[in-house]
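pls ignore typos typing on phone
1-hydroxynaphthalene-2-carboxylic acid + seq
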Amino acid sequence: MDSSTATTFPTTGLSPERRDLYARLDKKSAAPLWEVLGKIIPPEPTPETVSVVWRYDELRPLLLEAGRLLTAKEAERRVLVLENPGLRGQSRITQSLYAGLQLILPGEVAPAHRHAAAALRFIVEGTGAYTAVEGERTMMHPGDFILTPSWTYHDHGNPGDVPVIWLDGLDVPIVNLFDASFRESFPGETQPNAVPEGDSHARYAANMLPVDWTPKRASSPIFNYPYSRSRETVHSLYANGPVHECHGVKVRYINPAQGGPPMPTIGAFLQLLPKGFRGTPYRATDATIYAAVEGRGQSRIGDTTVTWGPRDIFVIPSWAPVSHEAGEESVLFSFSDRPAQQVLGLWREQAPVAS
Ligand code: 1HN
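k done
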């Protein structure tokens, strides 16, 4: 077979007849399934995503340096992409999700746009900045979980006096898998304040809905889930028990109108690990991005152990057994593509995992 053929399997050791057939198949844009079947349909997940931790103390100075080199407007979004070491150059943190750390400095505006990709923000540091979604602003505080659903106009601004940094999570690789990406700029840098701040909370976050309400989109009508409330929730549940042997006290963020996930492609979770917690191994098919919020601990992921402290970010690959330990009472935020896998009938979990 000549070197121009684009086979994805080894061709050494093949009989001359087979090599010849494969070369002629190749010219017709065809290929022998029997050479690749085991690779494309493995008996269980074989992720290229690896377990990895980003230390906030190491990334923060680099992000601030980027802040000195270019403006948010120039960059459109000033973000350090967190690239999984197993997937370098693909702008992804797992096979299905993008993540990055975004900085907005005092006085800056990140201009309004919208795209097919859906985004979440998990606020890591600083107060005084806002994000606006479809004409409604919300102030961002550390630990807040904020949505930017698919095809909603959004801009960010920092009228405060300290840098504000957050973790972005987007379903970009999923949208691009389907070749379904669209984007456009808003006519104007920022959206007008068309809706009073707090309106969606009043309308949708009090276990009630306006009587004639019908959903406008597939995502939650709430777009800020403030940390003050979600933190209180995991603490109350801890006080009242029980504590799960794998997860500690773990809750999922929901769309309050139907109980499902906040967005169709991305699920998000908050968990409290009690001081001294030693979890038992668990695995699931949704590769998961964790952001530590409070406390310190370590997570055993397959054969590696990652230690983490406040604001560190780490990744659990699909189907890798994970067990968490916490030396101090800890709170972990996490997100994954679980809702997408569930709606496709693909999601699996296993606990305990025999070691
Ligand atoms: C985006 O729109 C934002 O709006 C952040 O803050 C990160 C990464 C890829 C594509 C769009 C934002 C993004 C992004």
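The first strand starts at residue 52 and ends at 54. The chain has eight helices and 22 strands. more later
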